[in-house]
Amino acid sequence: MESLNPQLSSELTLYTKMGWRLIPLHSVRPDGRCTCGDSHCEKNAGKHPRISAWQKNASADLGQVTRWATQFPGCNWGLACGEESNVLALDIDMPFGLDSLKELESAIGEELPETVINLTGSGGQHWLYHYPKGRHITNAVKLKGLFDGIDVRSNNGYIVLPPSIHQTGRHYEWDVAHHPEGMGIAALPETLIHYLESDPVLQFAQISSEPWKPLPIEVAARLPEVCERLGKSVADADGAAQVKYPEWIGFASWARAAVADSSLFDEWSRPYPKYNAREVQKKWKDTEDQVIPYTCQTMQTHRPLPECETCPIFQSKYRNPVAFLRAEYGQELGLNRPYGAPSYVEAIQEGYESDGVEWLQGHKDLVDKAR
Fold first, then answer.
1. What pTM does this model have?
2. CA distance to 121, 180, 222, 329, 338, per residue, from 334 (Å)
């Protein structure tokens, strides 16, 4: 790469060593217009790919990247996010992004870990995290309508990398204290993974300041019938002995999402050969801040079960058996919302199912209330 700018050569070498799949992008001319030549290319100037089928053709091969750099001199560069590059990016725009980030951390109950940060030419930031292997996280604008100024870049999404040039004339650059050469990319916290995997309407309700009504205990008792994993785990000592510790914590999160006290969690824990009532109560207290129930996908990562792969809940929008049971019981009662949900969730659900994220963005009063 001797013919290339030394900074560009260094950056591209670093990126390909990290396994990042790169995309050559159009750049910005001195007059601020995009090199694509389209007079209508304004907000997207210098940001869209110069190659076709970029999702398929993005490459982490240094030889291919070098050929592109020679073919498209002065081009900008993009990182194809997602599982293959092992990168998920939070795209934080100003002026609302950092405030929304604090709201997001409040919603999931913990601060996001320090990680690699790319400073964009517009004054925003890209926070890079490892893509959680085997999970299903999609691209999301305004984090599915919930948080202004935060977009998610995942599979089939990309971000612009340093040393690319923004339409303003400023360069993209790495934050000095969060450069990929000086620190590793952090893992996404499990609470955020749950949040990103969940259905938007359920996200509103699950973090609502207005509490959900507990399920009647006789209805909550159906959960081992609804979920085969849970059913096998609580049926007898042999089944309970197979349960992994993180899986047990997941059962606690399900019990908390279903009823108001620890009785259900205690009942599920009793078949364990080393059952200890004090330990159960301690764990119940320790999980008091568990905001969002574990998803079926999360449980599968802790202990893969073939029956989970074919379970209808696994691929449904509910993503966990408690949400599924609440919806089912709500239908039995003739409700147009999951049982126990705050009353305004019905309006949110109807609007979202009718018009999608656009409806959520246009009804900030309900959005703010649901938070």
1. 0.59
2. 52, 54, 19, 9, 10
